[in-house]
Amino acid sequence: MTDLIAVVHGPNLNMLGKREIGIYGGKTLDDVNSEVKVEADKLGVSIECFQSNSEGELVTFIHKCRGRVKGVLLNAGAYTHYSIALRDAIAAAQVSVIEVHISNVFKRESFRHISVIAPVCIGQICGFGSQGYILALRALLEEKLDPWLI
Ligand code: DQA
User: For a substitution probing ligand 1, which of 7, 18, 102, 124 has the most ligand atoms within 8 Å of its CB?
Assistant: First the structure.
């Protein structure tokens, strides 16, 4: 297994820096990916960043992670709350995924309190802004228990 980590962003996250700045902050997606890259370099791993607004493209990307990446940091955006297809893709890919949200979804509307992907993820980090991706990267690299990785 390579030391490649996929950083996957779902719908509307290409609008970071312009979109609901009071909730998501002023950093662009490129800023966020650059911050993750700096941390990845420090930790000695490579990252591959992918964003799509399309559920099917995200499903296909997750499939392609199987056997190719050490793990995935996934902010599935709104698909988190209802995409059974994404949930099944994670299960099919047998890859370690950490669910990331920039905002604290539990402080927000009740429909955001549900994550259909959480049961197939190692864990979830939310509410720490873009720092959540860094925390997730560290957690992923420290994670020893996932049977799919060994
Ligand atoms: C989000 C939270 C989701 O509820 C929302 O649909 C997003 C972003 C977050 O990062 O806080 O698009 O995943």
Answer: 102
Report pLDDT for 62. Answer: 98
Q: The pTM is what? A: 0.94
**For residue 22, what pLDDT is reported?**
94
Q: What residue segments make up the domains of the chain, in order of their start?
A: 3-142
Residue 18 backbone class (left: φ over 0; alpha: ψ -120 to 50; beta: rest) = alpha
- Both tokens of 59, joined, read 């499903």
> Is residue 118 predicted with pLDDT exceeding 60?
yes
pLDDT of residue 150: 44
Q: Which residues line ligand 1 (CB under 6 A)?
A: 12, 75, 77-78, 80, 101-103, 105, 112
Cα 77 to averaged position of ligand 1 atoms, centre (Å): 4
Pairing of the two strands 97-101 and 46-51? unpaired
- CATH number for the region 3-142 comes to 3.40.50.9100
